[in-house]
Design brief:
The complex is a heterodimer. Chain A is an alpha/beta fold. Helices cover about 25% and strands about 15% of the residues of chain A. In chain A, strand 13 and strand 14 form a beta hairpin. The longest helix of chain A has 20 residues. The radius of gyration of chain A is 22 Å and the shape is globular. By secondary structure, chain B is mainly α. Helix content of chain B is about 50%, strand content about 0%. Chain B is built from seven helices and no strands. In chain B, helix 2 crosses helix 5 and helix 3 packs across helix 4. The chains are: A alpha/beta, B mainly alpha. The interface between A and B is large, with 74 and 55 residues.
């Protein structure tokens, strides 16, 4: 048996790294258990000639396709959107686009402003210091002065507009619609030990240059120097409790597959919106028969994904294609509620730059644009390097029937029950997606693109795993309180996307990390009476 | 199957035959077909986790042809290929992807597209700065976000 630790963090991804780093200044004994291992950038896809093909195999965003030993299977057959994630030190930040918007102030007041869903128990202003701290730690590139979002000052200049951004900017100006270079965690100058971006272009499945921020190269080296112990290849099976109803520790399998017990005074869950409810439900006991921290019955419920409506076409002029980070521009033109649109809430447009030849060939063949036989070569030369596209990141409202449960049959390699996803796209979101597709077609028409294609929803687009252990002041309507502590188990905290009360219409990593830093700060302020 | 190949000799011949139907050689663009020996060797050597579905697709192909595809004349091969593509499904999609991904990383093919035959790292690429004056119109707009 291991000696007890003060704080045990489960998961070394976006939020686990941030909370561990922030708590390190307390000098408490902090241990993080991560089911994956340290990443080796020398083996990342962009280092080899098969760089595109690996996205269909060992660097697929889907854990079910990737099926590395570090991954756990997910039964998502009953969902039109499949869960994607990454398991390893850095978690989902190893495999993300690095698009880094924040939730808007209105996202925290959805019930008050728009009569839908619920308000958060905290507001945007409470998170501002932590957004800024996280921007410094992750290293954010962007351009101040955007009228589409509250003021912020990214520490690095934005990525170049490039050919694609220039074409899209002109199209948006023709329509009179808002656009701005996206905030991104791709370093545009040498930053805090990271070399600047050299446009490998294949950012999403991990950055070999180290220009894209992932927490294995941002938070973790600093946290480890401050004394945090990170144990890779350690998969937690369950959280145990004592006779006082407090969390006692965790049972986990170490790198050799040996069952271990780690006692802890405080446990922090940072396993994402699928992994966290899975672990809580797998921690059911006689004392907590419906799963740990689940007196509300809401653990696993209200799963939100952000359905993506992707639209693209082809222009005569050459685009940036795969020779630049895919992150390019955003538009907030349709973000805030406008009742005349037929739905509440809204979406961000995320503009891309193009794709590489293999992805272009595979996608175009599947869409029927690329023929077999004699016409193949001429058609491919018209398509390849000419793609221009965008996606509407649509706000998903919380609905309890969208949920994570435990699959009765499927198990991971340690025999731990796997998660099952039951999810449907809500009516409001479906109308929003339709609106986004129509506007995207207008944008592409303004850019003089043809052969318009639509993927709605993006099938393997469940990047954002939110809402399954929501925060709130009312223990009957939430899993944790307004500073991340379980209502039921007073030494158990949650810091990942599970906390989200509503999803907003943006990529959530910036807000997830700001929340983790906010909760760590709340914990530090309450150390003397943390369990009261 | 031989010790070196995950496919039977018949499956290998049919893979070569269907690859040529999907992407024939072109004198106009000075590129080989997907049945080129080097491209075929790469395809077979990197089947990996796709092997099962590719075998399944090749078996389906042989079923539709009623005989090994490679034994048919070109017109009959194309007719069977049309039938296979229309049938669709995961196995056919995987077979098609396997052909495309090996073809479009071949040095000769990549060069013919005006691209350099190399991985992105470590050289990277150059991204043009673009026209920042385009943002002037946007800067002039009042705030769009709601105060809450």
């Amino acid at each position: 048996m291991n000696d007890p630790v003060d704080v045990l963090v489960i998961g070394a991804g976006a939020s686990g790294a941030a909370v561990a780093w922030s708590l390190a200044e307390t000098k408490m004994h902090i241990v993080c258990l991560e089911q994956g291992g340290w990443m080796n950038p020398a083996t990342y896809p962009s280092t080899g000639r098969d760089w595109e093909a690996r996205a269909f195999g060992d660097y697929s965003p889907s854990p079910n396709i990737r099926a590395r030993p570090e991954d756990y299977p997910i039964n998502d057959a009953n969902s039109p959107i499949k869960v994607v994630n990454f398991n390893g030190v850095g978690g989902g930040t190893v495999m993300y686009t690095a698009h880094f918007p924040r939730l808007h102030p209105s996202d925290f007041r959805v019930r008050s402003l728009d009569g839908a869903a619920d308000d958060w128990p905290i507001d945007y202003d409470a998170l501002v210091p932590f957004f800024e701290e996280n921007d410094r730690m992750m290293g954010v590139s962007g351009l101040a002065g955007d009228p589409g979002v509250p003021p912020r000052n990214p520490p690095m200049p934005p990525l170049p507009l490039g050919r694609s951004g220039t074409m899209l900017g002109k199209a948006m100006n023709r329509l009179g619609w808002h656009w701005w270079p996206s905030d991104t965690t791709v370093a545009t100058v040498d930053y805090d030990g990271r070399a600047r971006c050299i446009n490998l272009g294949h950012c999403t499945p991990a950055c070999a240059q180290g220009a894209k921020a992932s927490t294995d190269i941002t938070y973790w080296p600093v946290a480890q120097r401050a004394g945090v112990e990170l144990r890779p290849h350690c998969r937690v099976r369950e959280i145990t409790t004592n006779e006082h109803g407090m969390a006692a520790g965790v049972v986990y399998y170490d790198a050799d597959g040996i069952e271990q017990f780690q006692a802890a005074h405080v446990i922090v869950l940072a396993c994402n919106g699928v992994g966290t409810p899975r672990l809580l439900l797998n921690s059911a006991s006689g004392r907590f028969p419906n799963g740990l921290a689940n007196s509300s019955g809401l653990v696993g419920k209200n799963l939100m994904f952000h359905p993506y409506a992707q639209v693209y076409g082809y222009v005569d002029e050459a685009t940036d294609s795969n020779r630049a980070p895919p992150t390019c521009l955003w538009s907030k033109e349709f973000y805030e509620t406008d009742a005349s649109r037929g739905f509440v809430r809204g979406y961000t447009f995320q503009f891309g730059r193009g794709v590489g030849p293999v992805v272009e060939a595979v996608a175009s063949e599947a869409k029927g644009l690329l023929p077999w036989g004699a016409g193949h070569h001429a058609a491919f030369r018209r398509l390849n390097g000419h793609r221009l596209g965008l996606s509407a990141i649509c706000e998903d409202l919380p609905e309890e029937h969208n949920r994570v449960t435990l699959d009765p049959v499927l198990k991971d390699s340690h025999g731990i029950p796997a998660p099952r996803i039951d999810y449907t796209i809500g009516e409001n979101t479906a109308r929003m997606m339709g609106h986004g597709i129509a506007r995207a077609k207008e944008i592409l028409a303004a850019a003089e693109a043809t052969d318009i294609c639509v993927n709605s929803p993006i099938l393997y687009g469940g990047w954002h795993l939110l809402g399954t252990a929501r925060m709130g002041a009312d223990p009957a309507r939430s899993v944790v309180n307004e500073w991340g502590r379980s209502h039921d188990v007073k030494n158990l905290f949650i810091v990942d996307g599970s906390l989200f009360v509503t999803s907003g219409g943006v990529n959530p990593t910036s807000t997830i990390q700001a929340l983790a830093l906010y909760i760590a700060d709340q914990m530090k302020q309450r150390l003397a009476n943390l369990f009261d | 199957m031989s010790a070196d190949s995950p496919l039977t000799p018949t499956q290998s011949e049919d893979l070569r035959a269907i690859a040529a139907v999907i992407i024939p050689a072109s004198a106009e663009f000075d590129v080989p077909g997907a049945d080129d020996p080097a491209i075929q060797a790469d395809m077979v050597a990197t089947l990996g986790r796709d092997t099962g579905l590719v075998r399944e697709a090749l078996d389906e192909l042989a079923h539709l042809a009623g005989t090994p595809l490679a034994g048919l004349d070109p017109a009959c091969r194309e007719a069977v290929a049309v039938e296979l593509r229309a049938k669709g499904g995961a196995a056919v999609a995987t077979l098609t992807r396997v052909v495309l991904q090996s073809y479009y990383r071949d040095d000769r093919v990549v060069r013919s597209l005006g691209l350099e035959p190399r991985p992105p790292y470590p050289k990277g690429y150059v991204l043009e700065d673009g026209d920042w004056s385009l943002l002037d119109a946007v800067r002039a707009r009042p705030p769009l976000w709601r105060r809450a």
